[in-house]
Design brief:
- With 497 residues, the chain is an alpha/beta fold.
- The protein has 2 domains: 149 residues, Jelly Rolls, CATH 2.60.120; 326 residues, Alpha-Beta Barrel (TIM Barrel), CATH 3.20.20.
- Helix content is 22%, strand content 23%.
- It contains 11 helices and 19 strands.
Amino acid sequence: MRIMLKQFFQLIAAAFCVAGAGAADALPLSFTFDGSDPMAGWAHTKALTAEVRSGYIRLVGTDGDSKIYRNITLPAGEYRVTGCGRGSNLVIALSRGFTTPFFVLHLSNGNLEKWRTDSRVFRLDKEESVILSVFSSTIDTKTNTAELKSITMTPEKSSVAETDLPTPEVLGKHRPVPAIVRGFTLQNKNGIEEARSEWNANVVRKWIPTPDIADDAVFKQRMAEISEYLAEARKYGVKVVLTVNADAFSGGGKVDMTHNAFWTSPDLADRAAALWKKIAVAQAPYRDVIYAYDLCNEPLDWDQMPYPPKEWRPAAIAATRAIRSVDPDTWIMYEPGPGGLHDGFKDMKPLPDEKVIYSVHYYSPHEFTHQGIHNITGTDLKEIQAKTNVRSNWDKAKMKKHLQCARDFQLKYNVPILVGEFSVVRWAPKEDAAQYLADLVDIFEEYGWSWCYHGLRDYHGWSLLHSETYGDTAPAKEETLRAKIIRAGLQKNENKK
């Protein structure tokens, strides 16, 4: 649920030597490393050694700016970049001069035995001269070795599957009921009464446990548990968002759902569709309680960062259509990702369905919200945040700027947004933590976004009910500042009966 990118751009952010702009290059562009002069037109930094092999080039880097690069000029349009490579920290990037790359494509596979081919689309609104770079970078004193076979760049045609997208006018006619909800992530049904009666929450977000869910007997047991949870929520007038982690689409067995091998499975979309159809059928008696089907919690492929897994959108569309075949009314929830970030909203189009709530999670900056968390097993944190007493340096204006891509999407397409998770560890400096949560709640309310605090009766680090002292797991002797902020926000819900 949380992402660390602290070191990611150290691998790709660097000064770029820019060649002079010229006429647009002939399309499609194709760069291979064979022939009499395979490096023609390419330059490389001093920290990188480029070794031409038979049909490919070996790139040995010794710092964070180890790369080969060249200038290309492209007319306005949408393009697909396809690369074939292998090794570690192999990244194709496009940049405008000395700025951070606006496009990256990972080709890393962690070994020099098997080639990996991948592609991604980008768009230019006008003719531009840009720098095409290939990084083989390291952030420590060790060398990094990667190998590149080819890069091609071709004009991209519109996808046939994306032609039936609803217009903003159509999307604006639909809203879930209630239109705005506020509550918690909550896994134990025994906390539902507390969420409603003591906090005035009107929604909870619940994971469906996914281990072995492909097994029929396990699935039946999971659905029985979810039915009990939904029955409890109905009893107290609380709506429920149901979600799963990506490993629910694995088909069984242990998988690493945060890397390319999982997301490129040819059966991914079919598995997602089949599972969600089964869930919708199994929970049909409780559709009045289900606020939305949240199709996947924080979809993440580290090999495609800083982008969401490109395979996730078509899989989500397949799952949405499968649900609609048995349930035409319950709202769908879509997290574009990547992971707990919201960069996937940039240039995103709505899904081809009129009843979709779009979801963001918010934990930025991680060095503040996750300080002192040492056990990162089961999370998508890249590194332990061991330091404590970290002050927040983000004010409301910076948070708004950071969330702007999601806000722009909401306004452009007239769609509902729900913040599925946001939090800060209880031992963060308490005045800063309280202000952080107050600023976020203010933003959500200003934008008309629903929200779920993470979480109630969950990991004690996120608890509103425990002491604000690091290492102390005792209940707080008086209501914490963070609890007061969340409680005040929840009072905006219609009062409990």
